[in-house]
Design brief:
Number of strands: 25
Largest sheet: 4 strands, antiparallel
CATH topology of the largest domain: Complement Module, domain 1
CATH class of the largest domain: Mainly Beta
Radius of gyration: 51 Å
Number of helices: 1
Oligomer: single chain
Strand order of the largest sheet: 6-7-9-10
Number of domains: 5
Order of helices and strands: EEEEEEEEEEEEEEEEEEEEEEEHEE
């Protein structure tokens, strides 16, 4: 709302002030459009609830479609969306906004309409054909299937692309037309690797081959490739680089790819006690003395074991062994 008269610097008790609805709003009785100065020198509460926002003309549902009220209203400052039913496409703006102009609230554009989705016949292809070639107009989701003609030579044609396409939108098919052509990929050879599936003498369109690397080599790339429409392997053939490992490490399995394992290394022999110092070229004297003492102890123990064993052997030889035969009560002497 807005004041009808100009503001005054001072108002008497009981004096009234009148309002009117602003442009773009309209009045609905019986709500008040005035306020007055009360005896306590305050204004009688006034609200703008008497003025309502103007609306654009009611948007009707288009034939074979509908209007969606996004905010539940078609007053100015809001918008509506147009949608078409299945098998129809929209002509015009999908979103209209109710705008406030000099003449009042108006729509931002003309109402949209819904027309039936139709497609012209799909493209013809060289060395091939499609079904329903006699049909001049195709409706929504109606489909055709392509096939290749017999090849004049020993090499057969391959259908490269989608076999079946359908009318997806107005004058628009779901995919481009395929091609009929001879596709032959070269014999797949991977250095330091071998083929484990997809064996054959000739590799035509969509032929698949699987590889693995020899022992000591790892796979770099995809282990499975397919013969593409341009007579090339997709993705490209993998590589089998040599596995880099220390001489003491066991070779990795040929089919394993990725980062190489690391192995702990022994410290240089120069760090061991008694080894010649790299600069001085002499042995550590403490280490030399310890080795000599250990050898003497081992020699003494060896001699003691031999003497004890020989002594026990001679004693048994002198005494012999007497066996008593219980059945004949005879004493039999048996020497060792």
């Amino acid at each position: 709302m807005e004041l009808i008269s100009e503001l005054k610097p001072y108002y008497e008790v009981g004096e009234e002030v009148h309002y009117k609805c602003k442009k773009g709003y309209f009045y609905i009785p019986p709500l008040s459009l005035l306020t007055f100065c009360e005896k306590n020198h305050s204004w009688f509460p006034a609200t703008d609830e008497a003025c309502f926002r103007d609306s654009c003309s009611f948007p009707k549902d288009p034939e074979n479609g509908r209007v969606v009220f996004v905010n539940g209203t078609y007053s100015w400052g809001f918008e509506v969306h147009y949608e078409c039913h299945w098998g129809y496409y929209l002509i015009g703006e999908a979103i209209l906004r109710c705008q406030l102009k000099e003449e009042g609230p108006v729509w931002s554009d003309k109402p949209a309409v819904c027309e039936k989705i139709l497609c012209l016949p799909p493209p013809k292809i060289e060395n091939g054909k499609h079904t329903f070639s006699e049909v001049e107009v195709f409706h929504y989701l109606e489909a055709v299937t392509y096939s290749c003609d017999p090849a004049p030579g020993p090499e057969e044609y391959s259908l490269v692309g989608e076999h079946t396409i359908h009318c997806a939108n107005h004058h628009k098919w779901s995919h481009n037309a395929p091609e009929c052509k001879v596709v032959r990929c070269p014999f797949p050879v991977v250095a330091n690797g071998k083929q484990i599936s997809g064996f054959g003498k000739v590799f035509s369109y969509k032929a698949k081959v699987t590889f693995e690397c020899n022992m000591g080599f790892y796979l770099n790339g995809s282990d499975t490739v397919s013969c593409g429409g341009n007579s090339t392997w997709e993705p490209s053939l993998p590589l089998c680089p040599k596995v880099s490992t220390p001489s003491t490490a066991k070779p990795l399995n040929s089919s394993v790819s990725g980062p190489k394992p690391t192995h702990p290394t022994k410290p240089p022999v120069s760090n061991y006690p008694g080894y010649p110092h790299p600069k001085e070229g002499i042995f550590d004297p403490d280490y030399d003395t310890w080795i000599i003492a250990l050898l003497i102890i081992i020699a003494i123990l060896t001699v003691a074991v031999v003497i004890v064993g020989l002594y026990k052997y001679l004693q048994r030889r002198k005494k012999g062994t007497y066996l008593i035969d219980e059945s004949h009560r005879e004493v039999i002497f048996t020497s060792l």
